[in-house]
Design goal:
159 residues, alpha/beta, six-stranded mixed sheet, 3 helices, globular, OpcA_G6PD_N, G6PDH_assembly_OpcA, Glucose-6-phosphate dehydrogenase assembly protein OpcA N-terminal domain-containing protein
Length: 159
């Protein structure tokens, strides 16, 4: 099942995940990590497919962050569109695809933080090209230095 949320917020996405869990359509128990994927639009589907395959061995929450280029979406220039994928569209995980536009592209950490699984490691993956140093990037670990209990790893796409 894919649920599309237009012009939304991370709080609304989190609330929708809770509602899905209460309705029995998605289960968050047993997730071993949060996988944060920083992918350009052209790599999103391949990254989701790879994450879905990996989730069968390591159930996780997958957060795909794909900043949209200027003029890529209809509607307001600034904002956040999202998809929640559960069930057959998410492997053994739940997948949240975040598509920030305009000014929202500069606040990626604040979009991701409310959606992280509590008390679970965080792994960051750049399926296209990782930055030379992940430290200053909003997708990880975090510009402020983050929590000392959080971890990040970068892997270059080889497929």
């Amino acid at each position: 099942m894919i649920i599309t949320l237009s012009s939304t917020t991370s709080s609304k996405i989190a609330a929708r995940l809770v509602k899905l869990r209460e309705e029995g359509g998605a289960v968050a128990l047993g997730r071993v990590l949060t996988l944060v994927v920083s992918a350009p639009p052209e790599h999103v589907e391949r990254a989701v497919d790879a994450a879905n395959d990996a989730s069968r061995e390591h159930p996780c929450r997958v957060l795909v962050v794909s900043p949209q280029p200027d003029g890529a979406a209809d509607g307001p220039a600034d904002g956040l569109d999202a998809e929640i994928r559960v069930g057959g569209d998410a492997g053994a995980s739940e997948v949240i695809v975040l598509r920030p536009r305009g000014g929202a592209r500069s606040e990626l950490d604040s979009l991701v933080m409310p959606l992280l699984l509590p008390d679970a490691p965080i792994v960051t993956w750049w399926p296209a090209s990782p930055p030379p140093s992940p430290r200053p990037t909003p997708s990880g670990p975090w510009p402020s230095g983050g929590s000392p209990t959080r971890s990040s790893a970068a892997t270059r796409w080889t497929g």
